[in-house]
Amino acid sequence: MTDKLTGAAGRQYVAEAIRHSLSSGDLSPGQRLVENDLAESYGATRSAVREALQDLAAEEIVEIVPRRGARVRAVSVDEAIQITECRSALEQLCAMKAATRASQEQRTELRQIGAEMRQAVADGAVHTYSILNQRLHELVVEASGQEVARRQLDRLNGPMVRFQFRLALRPGRPAQSLQQHLAIIDAIAGGDATAAARAAAAHLEDVIEQLRSSAAMPSTPVPTRV
């Protein structure tokens, strides 16, 4: 019999597995997360699952209801817009810093990501584009050297994962966001801090507009990098 995952390794594995299930659409807002079922599915001990759920609750991805257990936290469109507004301020800061602080290797990688994003859109490779999109945002933050912003963005992005998944699958969305991402890349790679901040702001403003149009009633909870 194979030993079950436990301790810090088990805790991290289960948390990552739940995040992946959210981003792939396998889990829905309000869905119950039963410790025994999760332990069986992920080959982990119940203690590892319980600790992972506590970590996700701290990130506001999961909510733990007394005497009822854990469930995926539903995020309204209104809250998603407010989160994105906060993201915008932080991502503008990171883009601006990255334009002046990025190494030559990072600037080269940014340009390569841009070329691969163009190809992914041409090929209709939505999943590939999504992965490149995520790496782009991560690289901008890395290049900025802004660790405080990185921690805050990680926290803000957690509750948004299903919104991001839904918007990323909207027909024509990769082609629409491609030019926005290329503008960010060009500005950072070219060392133009003002243009980098402006491009990041324009991209996040478009995300907000997409969120506003994602539901007939802005305050209605709906399934949740774009």
UniProtKB/TrEMBL annotation:
Entry GO MF terms: DNA binding; DNA-binding transcription factor activity
Domain of life, source organism: Bacteria
Keyword tags: DNA-binding, Transcription, Transcription regulation
Location of the HTH gntR-type domain: 8-75
SMART domains per the UniProt record, alphabetical: FCD, HTH_GNTR
Signal sequence interval, chain numbering: none
SUPFAM superfamilies with a match to the protein in the record: GntR ligand-binding domain-like, Winged helix' DNA-binding domain
Pfam families xref list: FCD, GntR
Family matches, as PROSITE patterns: HTH_GNTR (PS50949)
Descriptive protein name: GntR family transcriptional regulator
